[in-house]
Design goal:
- With about 425 residues, this protein is mostly helical.
- Helix content is about 75%, strand content about 0%.
- It has a single domain (about 10-430), classed as Amino acid/polyamine transporter I (Up-down Bundle).
- It has helices at about 10-20, 25-30, 40-65, 70-80, 80-95, 100-115, 120-140, 140-165, 180, 185-200, 220-255, 260-265, 270-305, 320-340, 345-375, 380-400, 405-425, 425-430.
Length: about 425
């Protein structure tokens, strides 16, 4: 990148937090309400999985300080064919998931402006998408600075609100037996179902690795940013979920898709809708910016590795991969149109995208287990890192097992879409000597 080493620790940890802390904060308390107190166990499982993946990615990035993220690690372990499809799948889900952030942010905007027509909603969504794309086209340093500001704006309320909520906390809401919360289902299965939901909040744990070549002192900066950022996200999610539930209980949360609004109305009757709407918009746009930066870097890095077509290698004077960012923005618009048609497909697709992300994380964890055998000669160190890889692999498989058929179908569709590009550039993808 001609822009050089522009990203320091603060902007990078902001990207890690910003990419994970998104719309999930505003919907997960309601989605988890049917699971009652088992939802908390779901959080514990997903936090453990997220931290293990954070450790996996931090060690991978300390040994391979190359931009691109997941596909770089898979390529090192299993070759360029596996690397291409990892990059392709990861790139698609990186920007496809942005559609739900746009829909959520404009949905909250209507609480402030009043009811908007379908055309107005679509126009505003596209305007926000283009604005964020422009910020990232201007350059990575500018985008990182914007992300730092947006992250600070959304972290502070999400840290302060639980403190207020805990003042009205009623612990009796959590006094339930396992039989009550699991119903007729198995407790272990119910926890894994809750974990699949809660892990939605940690998608993006690896984002700090994608712009590695533009990071100052990447071997030290990236691991610290991943671990500190993911830990901060876990604390914020747990504080908010527990405090919200403790104010209104599970039944009220089950009956709403706006848990924060319900809690705020319980405590403060005036201005609560506007306050929460503004906060939700800030959170969603911050996450949108982080993923726009990430998707551009994924495609550009894949091009530099000879995997993606030359169009993805077009950069501007500031070194931003403008073509990759523009293509991702254009690709997001059909998902916005699907939502306008009220087909219901977008919501289901986004749920399945979480599982597809887990396939990418699973591939990276397996790659890591193979690579540590070469990196660590001392048996004690090697076994410690292998154990970490095994834990991350078990977590991914355990969580994926709840929606495996749908996940495999979506994964197969993504692979099929990428096949023409792979076939056209097969010789280049397979035979180009890396590095």
């Amino acid at each position: 990148m001609r822009e050089g080493k522009q990203l320091g620790f603060i902007p990078l940890v902001s990207i890690v937090i910003g990419s994970q802390l998104g719309s999930a904060a505003f919907v997960l308390p309601s989605q988890l309400a049917p699971y009652k107190t088992i939802g908390i166990f779901g959080w514990i499982v997903s936090v453990a999985g997220a931290i293990s993946l954070a450790l996996v990615f931090s060690d991978l990035s300390s040994h391979i300080t190359k931009s691109g993220g997941p596909h770089v690690y898979v390529t090192n372990a299993f070759g360029r064919t596996a690397g291409f499809f990892t990059a392709w799948i990861y790139w698609i889900i990186s920007w496809a998931s942005n559609s739900i952030l746009l829909v959520t942010s404009v949905g909250y905007l209507s609480n402030i402006t009043g009811t908007l027509s379908s055309l107005s909603i679509l126009e505003i969504e596209i305007m926000i998408l283009l604005a964020i794309s422009w910020i990232n086209i201007v350059g990575m340093k500018f985008s990182g600075t914007i992300e730092t500001g947006l992250t600070a704006m959304k972290i502070l309320p999400l840290l302060c609100l639980p403190v207020v909520f805990f003042l009205f906390f009623d612990p009796s809401f959590f006094k339930m037996s396992l039989k009550e919360v699991s119903g007729e289902g198995d407790v272990i299965t119910t926890i894994s179902q809750a974990a699949l939901l809660t892990f939605w909040g940690f998608i993006g744990v690896e984002c700090a690795t994608t712009p590695a070549e533009s990071v100052k002192n990447p071997k030290r900066t990236i691991p610290r940013a991943i671990i500190i950022g993911t830990t901060a996200v876990a604390i914020i999610y747990l504080m908010n979920t527990i405090s919200i539930t403790g104010v209104v209980g599970f039944e009220k949360l089950e009956a709403t898709n706006a848990p924060y609004a319900v809690v705020m109305n319980e405590i403060f009757s005036n201005y609560s809708d506007m306050t929460i709407s503004i906060l939700a918009i800030i959170v969603c746009i911050g996450t949108l910016n982080a993923w726009t930066l990430t998707s551009g870097q994924i495609a550009y890095s894949a091009y530099k590795d000879g995997m993606f077509p030359s169009i993805f290698g077009r950069v501007n004077k500031s070194g931003a991969p403008k073509a990759a960012i523009i293509i991702a923005a254009i690709g997001t618009i059909p998902f916005l149109l699907l939502e306008q048609l009220h087909t219901g497909g977008l919501g289901k697709l986004i749920d399945m995208l979480v599982s597809v992300f887990l396939f990418v994380y699973l591939a990276c964890s397996i790659a890591y287990m193979k690579l540590v055998k070469k990196w660590y000669e001392i048996k004690r160190e090697r076994y410690k890192h292998i154990a970490l890889a095994q834990f991350a692999i078990i977590f991914c498989i355990y969580t994926l097992s709840q929606d495996i058929v749908s996940s495999i179908i979506v994964l197969a569709i993504f692979i099929a879409i990428g096949m023409p590009i792979f076939i056209k550039n097969k010789a280049k993808i397979i035979n180009l000597i890396q590095g």
